Amino acid sequence: MGVEALEIEALQILVESLISYKGRLVGTPAAHTYIRDKNEINIPKKANKDPLNYDQVFIRDFVPVALLFLVKGEFTIQNGKKEVAINGKEIVKNFLEVTLELHQQERSETFLNTGRVLMPASFKILKNKKGKEHLEPDFGQHAIARVTPVDSSLWWIILLRAYWKATGNTALVHQADFQEGIRLILELCFSDRFDREPTLLVPDGACMIDRRMGIYGYPLEIQVLFYAALRAADELLDRKNHNNKDILSAIQKRLGSLANHIRTEYWMDMDRLNQTYQYNVEEYGATAINKYNIYAASIPYANLDEWLPEDGGYLVGNIGPSQMDFRFFSVGNLMAIVCSLVTNDQSEKIMNLIERRHKELLGQMPFKICYPAIEDEDWRILTGCDPKNSPWSYHNGGSWPVLMWMWAAAARKLGQDAKEEEYMQFAKAAIEKAGKRLQKEEWPEYYDGKSGHLIGREARRHQTWTCAGYLLAKELMTPSGLDPLELIKFKEKTYAKN
Ligand code: GLC
User: Fold this and answer.
1) Among residues 21, 35, 151, 379, which is most buried (max CB within 10 A)?
2) H runs (alpha helix) in 207-300
3) Which residues line ligand 1 (CB under 6 A)?
4) Strand, helix or coil at 445?
């Protein structure tokens, strides 16, 4: 099968899996459960027998699909024997409207419980006995381990901006319900907490890693998406609407303190490693250098000293009282480049690290969700002995093809900002190679193993964000129409230090 046919197949899976609600197409489920047999009749696929919640539209999973639909716009594609016409921008609009409806629904039902103004992790369409359709959201009340989907609300704002950039539909964005939706999400982020940090304090499993993995506290992924959502909201909120006055000035303040905090406290390179190696402990007061009272014994100096290239660096996974999580988390690091949460100089260092350590971070299937895996006693304590997250599996050092689009976006952005072609050429070759394998292995959800050779033991097939992640990565490398990078990136900004 040629490259062209491979791309058509991925797009067909997305189109075939589209879910409709009251006559409108509103999204794609996490995994497509039907395939065409030789007679082109849809039949249930064995590998996807027990759908669990993979038949639901997940907000985070739909983001790459939506970005792809935005750049593809109107197109036709063969679905079985029929040719179907798709209006990508319309589907994204429907998705944004339906999810906003769920947000409002949840609020009116729990209006005294203001802590629940989040977007759901996912939703499905149910029919009553008379055949009337209704939406059933999952805010974490049904999810395995009852995890809270903090990232959904942030992705929703980021996607709304991408839709706006692609369509110029300011009328929709300025509608009272959309403006209120953005405001309420951010008010929840800004509300008083038992905490003083500019970062967001969240429970374990609040993002793409939606199982216990020792990422409670201030995980990087959430902080980066928070920053991107603040930048997006700053563009989306109508300045003429007086209800937005307070939130707009709060956004400005938070953007500066958050960016400065992440760029310094989360940053790790050789200089910083040396600095932490010399840290004093038990410092009190405003002049403290080792603010979080990190003890040298908790830092794997020997490993990092060997692993960190001289010209490389990255953002660590988490920072809290006497805690620095040294794992490399991909969503956080790649999206920090795309939304300019890190400086251009830091971005280059992250991309250098990826190139120099490609065996570990990319292996046979880009991209490791985090590195390294936690093992033995750490695995027992931090995951709660979760066999799905055993070392080098699933969230614990597994490889997720969907992350290719973020890598492609980061490489392209750096290509533009630093006039640096090398990162892009490197990503391009690896992504091409991965595509062939994905098609052969039926677009798995994730891969296992230290070098990503093994199809994930419990991986779904025909995972929609795998298909979209690959197609979007291709579009990012060589845009065929509207450039997806323009929909998702933010320009570098410096902020005065307080
Ligand atoms: C798994 C992933 C999560 C994803 C969901 C649906 O739970 O950890 O990130 O959204 O599957 O694909």
Assistant:
1) 151
2) 220-236, 245-265, 270-277
3) 30, 58, 60-61, 208, 210
4) coil
Nearest to 215 by CA among 328, 337, 296: 328
Contacts of 443 (CB under 8 A, 6+ apart): 10, 13, 401, 461, 462, 463, 466, 467, 470
Find how far residue 313's CA is from the centre of its chain.
21
Q: How many residues does the chain have?
A: 498
Three-state SS for 368?
Answer: strand
Rounded Cα–Cα distance for residues 394 and 398 (Å): 4
The answer to whether 317 and 325 have CB atoms below 8 angstroms apart is yes
Beta strands 323-329 and 447-448 are unpaired
Q: Which amino acid is at 342?
A: V
Which two tokens mark 333? 């690091």
Counting Cα atoms < 13 Å in the Cβ hemisphere of 42 gives 10
Residue 440, C-beta contacts closer than 8 angstroms, at least 6 positions apart: none
The DSSP symbol for 116 reads G
Q: Tokens 């892009």 correspond to what residue?
A: 424
Digit-by-digit pLDDT tens for the chain (498 residues) are 555 889 999 999 999 999 999 999 999 999 998 655 544 445 445 445 578 889 999 999 999 999 999 999 999 998 778 899 999 999 999 999 999 999 887 666 654 454 457 899 999 999 999 999 999 999 988 889 899 999 999 999 999 999 999 999 999 999 999 999 999 999 999 998 899 899 999 999 999 999 999 999 999 999 999 999 999 999 999 999 999 999 999 999 999 999 999 999 999 999 999 999 999 999 999 999 999 999 999 999 889 999 999 999 999 999 999 999 999 999 999 999 999 999 999 999 999 999 999 999 999 999 999 999 999 999 999 999 999 999 999 999 999 999 999 999 999 999 887 777 889 999 999 999 999 999 999 999 999 999 999 999 999 999 999 999 999 999 999 999 999 999 999 999 999 987
CA of 210 to the centre of ligand 1 (A): 7
Q: State the distance from the centre of ligand 1 to the C-alpha of 470, rounded, in angstroms.
A: 17
Q: Are 75 and 95 in contact (CB under 8 A)?
A: no
Ligand 1 centroid–CA 129 distance in Å is 30
Question: With the C-alpha atoms ordered 82, 87, 91, 97, is the resulting torsion angle positive or negative?
Answer: negative
β-pair type (323-329, 370-371): antiparallel
Token pair recorded at residue 87? 């209006």
What Å distances lie between residue 322 and 276, 299, 383, CA to CA? 12, 11, 20
Q: At what angle do helices 422-440 and 3-17 cross, to 10 degrees?
A: 70
CA distance 111 to 117: 9
Q: Which amino acid is at 127?
A: K
Determine the atom of ligand 1 nearest the C-alpha atom of 144.
Answer: 7
What is the spatial distance between Cα 474 and Cα 30, in angstroms, rounded to a whole number? 21
Give the Å distance between the CA of 126 and the centre of ligand 1: 21
